[in-house]
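Q: Hi! Curious about what Octanoyltransferase looks like structurally. Here's the sequence.
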Amino acid sequence: MPYLKALQWQRSLLTERINNPNLEDVLILLEHPPVYTLGQGANLEFLKFDLDKSTYDVHRVERGGEVTYHCPGQLVGYPILNLQHYRQDLHWYLRQLEEVLIRVLANYELQGERIPGFTGVWLEGRKVAAIGIKVSRWITMHGFSLNVCPDMTGFESIVPCGIADKSVGSLAEWIPGIKPQEVRFCVARCFAEVFDVELVDSQPEGFVLSP
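A: Let's find out. The predicted structure is below.
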């Protein structure tokens, strides 16, 4: 799905839930065409190309964090959650998202790790999952990306997440042949476990979450 189409979808879902906090939560899981996104305070020094002359698709958005890269083969998750139904604590929410991804890796007998002081999930010292969120009136948007089997060359044009001394990796390096579609269902199941919700598959890209 084109990045801007997914962004508008998120913004629409968030606005609906600000107006009606009783609407059910949603988890969107999809892939994007190649695109770079910058968090609202992101440093342009982490781009290795001239933004004014760029042939790349680049968007600055309202999430936190630095520059990241999305492309086919990377599974992107956008939870639209009302944290008033869970816990009104952003650090807790970030750790929960990491826990979802750590459980996904464990499903494939891989040991995902956190690194103190950083947000995301690492595998044998390489970052395989990035997280960047936005919360308005305790309703979340943006989310996480998990490198399943992307073309990793796109990361060479940036300093991913502004972390220069740690490389990025993908699950395909440990599990040749793995595809986002199979990981999607594992992510959805682990998400339901961590957030203690029931999943209802509502359309090709999304799930409705019921407490």
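A: A fun detail: The radius of gyration is 16 Å.
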